[in-house]
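User: Please predict the structure of the protein below. I'd like the answer in structure-token form so I can feed it into my own downstream comparison script.

Assistant: Understood. Taking the following sequence of 110 residues as input:
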Amino acid sequence: MDMDDAVPLSVPPALRRIFAQWGESCDPAPIAGGCDPAALAAFYRCLAETAAEMVLARHAVARIYADAAQNRDYGQFAELRREGAAVFPWVAKLVADDPVLSRQISAGPP
């Protein structure tokens, strides 16, 4: 099992609305390791548009976790901090329920 393996998840409607906001090019939190901003925005728009259960690679779940934590703690605006605080418990449960993800997140960035 590695970070490319899939994790099943279902995005609640309230979080889909938040991910739609994060899908706007200026909203996702910049974190170490970088990422193409257009690809990241498209990733969050995809999460916003998917109502059914889906699967994501563990590294994608880790990215949601990092963005939610960063937005919650350091978001530039109160709304972004509230959004991060709303997303974080949901994604933290996904991480806690997956031993590989949990170990990777605990270990910190590579």
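That's the full token string. The chain has five helices and two strands.
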